[in-house]
Amino acid sequence: IHKGGRRKMSIEVVGEIHAVIIAVQDYMPTNPTPIPSIEYANNDAKAFQNMLIETLDVSKNNIHSFIGEQAKLEIVEDELPSIIENLSPQDTFFFYYVGHAFSTREENSFTLYDSTQENLTGTSAYFDELLLEPLSASPCKKALLFIYASATDLLKAKNTKSTIADISEIEFSKH
């Protein structure tokens, strides 16, 4: 398909495409122990959103972006499950996350704007609880997850031995 001289990507979509984009470049500046920034996270998220709109003709109304200060734990916990719950069997769901993510005892978590080093597990979101379980229970059968994250910089910033590690694929493969 050509539009405006650009070649469009072809994707078979029966229903609508819905997307959730979460990007945390800089963390809350009041953290006693700062969490390292993720260079270009906000730009990458905006580029992904533009790709959805320009290449896949996704309606802006179907894209839910949580970038920077909008990516607070309470906001994401409130909104993400209801977005997933309202998907239909014909819809395609895109989840895009860029920020720090880590695993503790096979539970994967992703940091948000208000995550803190002092209480990392208590101030971060669990992939399984917030994303994977709701998706499994949802009638939506087509979901693509894009996760650009690592725990390496978190471990360097903590500067101590820790029980956190990079995210584990086991939890994702269960779903």
Quick recap:
This protein has 5 helices and 8 strands; from the N terminus they run βββαβαβββαβαα. With 175 residues, it is α/β, with parallel strands linked by helices. The strands form 2 sheets. Strands 3, 4, 5, 6, 7 and 8 form a 6-stranded mixed beta sheet that branches. The protein has a two-stranded antiparallel ribbon with strand order 1-2.
Account of the protein in words:
- With 175 residues, the chain is α/β, with parallel strands linked by helices.
- It contains five helices and eight strands.
- The chain has helices at 41-56, 73-85, 127-137, 152-158, 169-174, and strands at residues 2-3, 6-7, 17-23, 63-67, 92-104, 107-110, 125-126, 142-150.
- Strands 3, 4, 5, 6, 7 and 8 form a six-stranded mixed β-sheet that branches.
